[in-house]
Specification:
By secondary structure, the protein is of the alpha+beta class. Helix content is about 35%, strand content about 30%. Strands 1, 2, 3, 4, 5, 6, 7, 8, 9 and 10 form a ten-stranded antiparallel beta sheet that branches. Helix 2 packs antiparallel against helix 7, helix 3 packs across helix 4 and helix 3 crosses helix 8. About 5% of the residues have low confidence.
Length: about 280
């Protein structure tokens, strides 16, 4: 009798918890993330190098869980002179068949139909002390790693003056002004000809395939765009910072371009906007 109870409990648990996540009332079979960077040929004297990462999650009907089907990294080299093509493709086996938490997938799809506008500091759920800490960290990165900015700062200001300059940007109202001007809805996505740098993901259900993409032209890769197809193709903007956070939770830490989805880049871009707006380095 006890064994029968255990079997029934397992069957009921599978029925309740082992179901595919739904998106727009359709069961999700597969989620595929693709990130790619492709330089213009003119940016290299001998080779043009394109990089592509793919991370594929599927619903396994045996375990009744989402698992990683493949994590592929690919580098394509084109010879500018001979047009020769070399492809270096490898799988990252350590992630294969790894379980992906259904809750993370559920949280991802939950924000795809929700826009947050206007975005303000309050939406970020940070205290002012956390805000200052983020800015202090990114100001060090900005001055130390950006050669041109570092050179101009060192030529014009003392260390003490540099610290004073960055302290002036710890103003919430100024940060909200940055958010207001930087994060707006665009009627059409902006792309650069001859170069690409994007993250895309596809949600495949038992009925349809949904496509979403972001480009490096937008700060923090926001807004995202859903590519809606039918009688005609159009783009639907999604402005929601939580989308970035959910994607970062799901993807491996070494996934191509993943740092552009992290909050650090948001504060980094704010500092760049601040010093440009103030004309500090002119």
């Amino acid at each position: 009798m006890k064994n029968l109870f255990i079997i029934v409990f397992i069957l009921i648990s599978n029925l309740i918890f082992g179901q595919p996540v739904e998106f727009r009332n359709e069961k999700i079979d597969t989620i595929e993330f693709i990130s790619s960077v492709g330089p213009d040929e003119t940016k290299s004297l001998q080779w043009s190098i394109d990089k592509v990462n793919r991370y594929i999650i599927v619903f396994d009907t045996i375990s009744r869980k989402y698992i990683v089907k493949d994590y592929l990294k690919q580098t394509i080299r084109y010879s500018i002179e001979t047009r020769e093509e070399k492809i270096d493709k490898k799988g990252v086996d350590q992630f294969k068949n790894e379980t992906v938490d259904s809750t993370d997938i559920r949280n991802l799809v939950a924000v795809l139909d929700t826009n947050i506008y206007p975005i303000t500091f309050d939406y970020l759920n940070h205290t002012e002390s956390e805000f200052k800490k983020f800015l202090q960290e990114q100001s060090v990165v900005l001055v130390d790693e950006e050669y041109e900015i570092k050179r101009k700062f060192q030529r014009k200001y003392s260390e003490e003056e540099i610290q004073t300059i960055f302290k002036d940007c710890y103003n919430i109202d100024t940060f909200n002004l940055f958010l207001k001007y930087e994060f707006v809805f665009y009627p059409y996505p902006v792309f650069e000809v001859g170069y690409w740098n994007f993250i895309k993901f596809f949600i495949k259900t038992n009925k349809a395939k949904y496509s979403f993409e972001s480009t490096y032209n937008y700060t923090y890769r926001q807004p995202w765009n859903e590519i809606v197809t039918g009688d005609s193709t159009y783009y639907r903007s999604i402005l929601n910072f939580e989308l970035n956070e959910q994607i970062v939770k799901i993807l491996p830490s070494d996934f191509l371009n993943i740092n552009s989805l992290k909050k650090e880049i948001l504060y980094y871009r704010y500092l760049v906007w601040y010093i440009e707006r103030k004309g500090i380095l002119l």
